[in-house]
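Throughout our pipeline, every protein is held as a single compact record rather than as scattered files. Such a record has a labelled line for the sequence and another for the backbone structure tokens. This encoding replaces a full spatial description with a residue-level series of whole-number codes. For reference, a complete record is included directly beneath this paragraph.
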Amino acid sequence: PGLRNTYFWYLYADPEYTTCSGTKIGAHTELRLRETDTFRTFIDQKVWTWEAYGYIQHDDFGTLKAGQLFNRFGLFWDGVFFGNAPYFDGLKLDADYGVSWEKTTKVHDCLSVDRYLQFFFHEDTSNGSFGGADAESVAGYTEENTGVFRMVPIWTRCDGSQLAIGFSAMAGQINSRTALPDETIYAYGMDVQYTKGPWLAFFEASQLHGVRNPVNYVSGGPSDELTNLWAGVHYTHGAATYRCIYSNSIYENPNAIQNMLLVGATFTLTKHLDCYVEWVH
């Protein structure tokens, strides 16, 4: 309500140089702009970077990134525009300042393994979470020294179908420069993704411990345990992808539950133009 201008303007830059040995050296920057108001109450600027990092990629050693980059705890995204409960809790598309090592190892023709090892020194004070979801929306309450590990074995069958099972862990600190105490945060999760032909189905369950915000935006208090459930199915036919996504957040001490259901479709109108139609409850 009251929003009269474009939701986002995006500006991407992806320069890359390949050496004689095949090593790639490059950078990725995503700038976001809004015309009148700020994206979230705790984001001060109307122009800010969503990601900005440099990288070195080698076939044998993987990819090393440094800068402002996404936390890879759990599944990355479900393809929707509106969002999901883990996103509004600050667990998806959340970039902070740190380093990341990423590598895919091919064990044999039917099995490969994706690995992510990350360390974040400091928060970047912006993400898509609502005010009251995590530490980035509290002045003087700062996420620091956060480690993330993720491993995903991927099995490919002769018919082209794939089964991926992911395991994720995260541990970090919240440094308080207010009357609030410092916090230690840790989380773990497991996810499964299956694709076959035009179908894709996924499920993720994760649990996070520690107070991330003294006034949680759903429970209204310093909830110290968060359980996220996230599941969906996609079907692609021609230029259209249809999807149904369910996500759930369960907060404890004090207790509250948030449920979110999204039904929608994405239509590829041209090579550079997509149309999203979504209904959210």
Observations:
- The first strand starts at residue 9 and ends at 13.
